Amino acid sequence: MATTCDQKLAANVIGMCKSSTEHSTAIDVRFENTFTIWNYGRPKSNMHAYQMELAQSAYLSGGTGTPQYDIGKAERLRAVLRDVLEYLTRWRPNRAH
Known about the structure:
The chain is mainly alpha-helical and 97 residues long. The chain has helices spanning 7-18, 35-40, 71-90; strands at 60-61, 68-69. The chain has a two-stranded antiparallel ribbon with strand order 1-2. It starts with 6 loop residues before the first helix and ends in a 7-residue tail after the last helix. The mean pLDDT is 85.
């Protein structure tokens, strides 16, 4: 589980992402350019850092040609992201969620 943010925060966001049957979720994968979250995410000091990365296939379609914006895929992804962002804006440390 995440070490850069509150464990319950991470678990709730992961649960929201996993509830989508159309998208897959990877947890604590160290992608490139994650310096900020791994250096500044200090939940014990009340500094929480959470990073989400999106695959282009979540909102583009294209096969062998140039990828094209897929409004259907994007709308389904937007619904999941909206739930996550609304939760994150309401979340407060040390509060029952």
